[in-house]
Target: ABHEA protein
Amino acid sequence: GYGDSPPAETVATAQGRVAFLDHVLQELGMQRPVLISPSMSGRFALPFLLAQGDQLAGFVPIAPVGTKDYTAEQYQQVQTPTLILYGDHDARLGPQALQSLRHLPRHRVLVVPDAGHACYLDKPEDFHQALLGFLHQLK
Model:
């Protein structure tokens, strides 16, 4: 809903969103998945990463929202390998997210050239190449 979905009480809090995402991953039978989080999904992925990041094999935030909701100290506790991605034409949310996410100890940054906020749509080949490189590194 691009942020316009009707409110749901079960995901009104960060704890509720963590529980919801945990339930989805359990229902899908996923063990140590890589969580890819573009834009608005940051409201779900970031609290999950901070609360249960040890359950993830990796994390790929793509200019997610909500990064300023957490402190540098909270990010520094996370040991999940992370690939921070954003497009070089994303002058607002990408660099803003990087200011917080750079505190993750096990991170790399990749800026997709000639791409905007939705770099995975603007430059899908570059995006997928970066993603596959990160996934191969995790093995």
